[in-house]
Amino acid sequence: MTSTAPAPSAARTVGTRDRALTAARTSILEIGATRTTMVEVARRSGVGRTTLYRHWPDATALFADLLTRELTEVMEGMEGMEGMAVTEFTARVDPALPGSAPRDADDLVRLLCTFADEVRTNPLLDAFRRHESAMLSEYVFHRLGTSQRHLIEVLRALLSQVITSDPRLAGRDADRTAAMLFLAVQGLVLSAPLADPPLDPDGWRTELHLLIRGYLGL
């Protein structure tokens, strides 16, 4: 029988990275991103500074990986269109949402709005938005990161299934629609605090729902 367990060295590497990322997250939430230096992460995680620098050249690179991990953890709830991981996510954030793949465009809109709202209210993203806007702008204006590409792919998979099952979306291109939805929702999530008021959290959710429905022609 062939073991599927990771090699000890690989497991140690993953464990080291996770410890450092978790320590960085805690530090950012406690003392802010500006004061979360590589020295501080090393102290909190127990990972030596030399080891830390083997994984990340600086704090900005570490923060980028931390943001990817954070968004991936939220996204994992949306995945499972081929499996069933969406069940846990939808039950946790909104019991009224479907516990499996969206059955139609209405289900998809509700799922996407709930996901966007969870990202909008994520405390780590809020800290980055307030203190690391330069890092975030890299992924808004210059390139797509790993988690962004992953999210677009998740949306594409969702849309492909819903386009097949819901005649209201007949003729839609899943790739283009997923990319456009992602760009629109990303901008709205990152800029949400700028429009409060008049868009308080309830108003933001309501208007986002209307915007996505309008774009999809529902």
From TrEMBL:
It comes from Dietzia natronolimnaea. Residues 14-74 form the HTH tetR-type domain. Pfam families: TetR_N. The lineage of its organism: Bacteria, Bacillati, Actinomycetota, Actinomycetes, Mycobacteriales. InterPro entries: Homeodomain-like_sf, HTH-type_TetR-like_transc_reg, HTH_TetR, Tet_transcr_reg_TetR-rel_C_sf. GO terms for molecular function: DNA-binding transcription factor activity; transcription cis-regulatory region binding. Gene3D superfamilies: Tetracycline Repressor, domain 2. Keywords: DNA-binding. Signal peptide: none annotated. This is TetR family transcriptional regulator. Residues 37-56 bind DNA.
